[in-house]
Give the backbone structure.
Amino acid sequence: MVEKRMSEKVNKILYLVLSLLLAIVFWLYVDDVLGNTITREFKEVPIEFIGEEDTLPNRGLMLVDDEDITMDISVSGPRTIISNLRRSDIRPQVDLTSINAAGTYPRTYTFATSDNISRADISIQGSRSTVTVQVVPMYSKQVPVVVNVVGEVAEGYIYMTDRLVAEPTAITLSGKEEDVEQVESIHITVDLTNANGTVQQDFSYEMLDGQGNAVQNEHIRVSDKRVSVTAPVYVIKELPLAVKFKQAAGSMEANVRWWLEDESITVAGEAANLETITEIPMGEVDLTTILSDVDRPMEIPIPAGCVNLSGITTTTLGIRFRGLETRAFSVSDISPIGLSSGQRFSLITNSVDVLLRGPAAELEKVAAEDIRVVVDLTQFASNGTYTVDAMIFVDGHDQVGAVGSPPSIACKITS
């Protein structure tokens, strides 16, 4: 008996729940399908103009006062849709792509809706029958970019004013002539306070009038929204000038006193470029080619990408020989090296004059037979008559060597 009562009670609860669900479904059906609609009003909705940002400017035209063109919109539909509708879900649109010349044009409009709204489920009414637009020629001019650098760079660095680069160097402004003509310059401020390296960055800018006042006008179109600025900040470094000497017997560095009129210069460059540079090599000086005391001007090479802050482009190398003398010899001991087994050598030049240098006491001991003139013919594989620079050897006298230009030997090679 108890079980029967429990079963009847459960059945009654299920019946009540089912009835409630059916009532809800029926109410939704009546609300959505049987015409239970509501209406919402949206005031002064901005109109979108298709072709305003691309088609018209490409034709040298522009729309006037587009932000003032609005309309009121009335939207009707099922409560579940209309009650959740946002102002941005309905967009009135006017197509301008067929306009090819300046003038005043009446245009029809359409409505675009957000993707989550079915256009077939709602009804939209606008407060206008048509939209009248005014199209005028677009006025353009180029305005120069002016970069103002402020702030003091870090100690030991220098801002290279003359190497500042701004890209682009001018901005093209377009719009109504009275708006564009207000602007005289594009102004950018770059702060280099404590900078220890080159600043390279894209900057926003201000439009300034002739009195330096900012021009705020969103109706002016610009060719570029930002400007790329490179403000070089170089490290300063003092570099010694270095000379390397090519030495030989009778022309050793120990036998000369030398100096540079300028021992160092100050340069500036990117820190990465100067990090491993400790001196400026002035090149190699062959002491055997210098016959007497000399003051030789020398160009100062500047490391790649660097700037010579000292302004010194040349210096003078002074060389003074100490305790050395020279003595001339006529030598006929001329021999070849580098001949192949099938080649024969004959001299056209039978003797040459040789100038030796060394300590006076050692030069006194040198005889002509101690001097050998050697011709290297390794590079000549075919028969013929050739002129070759010779090498000079002084046997048995380590402190004496030949100086001046090497003698030229004329010879003949046969099979």
Summary: Helices lie at 2-32, 55-58, 79-82, 177-180, 271-274, 360-364. The two ends are 141 Å apart (CA to CA).
